[in-house]
């Protein structure tokens, strides 16, 4: 049985190594995506004027008037002092071709006081990599590898990394099992002696240590084993949440519905369109925000409207309620959200940290994966874990390679003898 697990860990590890190396290094960096983007692109994220800000919805309408090819998909309703107005952009359909316009950008930055354009960029563009899209390039690389669209589907990379995370989750348990001390072999005809817990723990203790003064081979092996043991709980959390986030609709959420009572959002309860027939909203953003504010008051929500998003593939508006313009709270949760259809009818709501136990578990996946659940300390831990994951990938390949070289040398020696 142990030999079978050794083989499984070896070949699963080799299959996953490259993916985990990339995911680890990129994850270590994107834990600080917002801060890094601000350092690299102050010309985009910082306002140039100091006057009072114009209403964001008015600025969004002006942007659409300037360029009829665009649809403003997301508008922050609250602006942090000194920040620009960052609008998310989707292309409208080109009547001549029947396809979406080729824009070359999906974010538009405006000065909130004047409405002047500060810049535009393609968030997540695979090439060319510039300072404007460097952070988003790493973000997309982390969870989708920038896989291109094929056969009308653009989620191949997301699915692949989800499968990688699922296999990695299983391999976490295999690797942990292999650190446990093997049973002692008894002499022929004798019954194995039970030496108790202390003996077993004593034989397991070296697995947690890195031997001083050891050879390079032994040092590499000890690092692989000890790092994996000391960080095992975090490794499992990162692996499992990577699976749950990337295969959320396909596997994770259906499984949660099978085993527990979980409340779907309108996005989880409906399939999106094909992108060729967007659902046009029947009411303005201003009307949606006003409807949402009345609904929020009836529900006793204290936070103001912080942002509005429209998904034309679903025909769903999302209005966020928060005291900040961030799409995530400090703990990594989505803010309170109200969902409305294209006509302004309320479809549902999602309030963080409320609902069934399964609802809260589902909501906690991103905060756990990003470390934001524990604030800055959690983000530091995830950055460290990214380096650990990459280290485990490299040391695992080195272990395999050294054993392979030794095995081939032994085979050659045997043939010569």
Detailed description of the structure:
With 417 residues, the chain is α+β, with helices and mostly antiparallel strands. The chain contains 15 helices and 10 strands. Among the domains are: 1-41 and 150-181 and 210-263 and 381-417, no CATH class; 45-130. It has helices at residues 2-30, 33-40, 42-45, 56-66, 134-144, 156-179, 196-204, 216-230, 232-246, 248-259, 266-269, 285-299, 357-363, 365-370, 375-416; strands at 70-76, 85-91, 93-94, 99-100, 107-110, 117-121, 305-311, 316-321, 336-341, 346-350. The strands form 2 sheets. Strands 6-5-2-1-7-8-9-10 form an 8-stranded antiparallel sheet. The longest helix has 42 residues, at 375-416.
- Order of strands in the sheet with most strands: 6-5-2-1-7-8-9-10
The mean pLDDT is 91
How big a fraction of the residues is strand? 5-15%
Global morphology? elongated
Major pleated sheet: 8 strands, antiparallel
Distance between the termini: 32 Å
- Helix content bin: 40-55%
Rg over CA atoms, rounded to whole Å, is 26 Å
**Topology, number of strands:** 10
Low-confidence stretches: none
Question: How many alpha or pi helices?
Answer: 15
Structural class: alpha+beta
SSE run = HHHHEEEEEEHHHHHHHHEEEEHHH
Set down the secondary structure blueprint.
Elements: H1 2-30, H2 33-40, H3 42-45, H4 56-66, E1 70-76, E2 85-91, E3 93-94, E4 99-100, E5 107-110, E6 117-121, H5 134-144, H6 156-179, H7 196-204, H8 216-230, H9 232-246, H10 248-259, H11 266-269, H12 285-299, E7 305-311, E8 316-321, E9 336-341, E10 346-350, H13 357-363, H14 365-370, H15 375-416
Antiparallel strand pairs: 1-2, 1-7, 2-5, 3-4, 5-6, 7-8, 8-9, 9-10
Helix pairs in contact: 1-5, 1-6, 1-15, 6-9, 8-15, 9-10
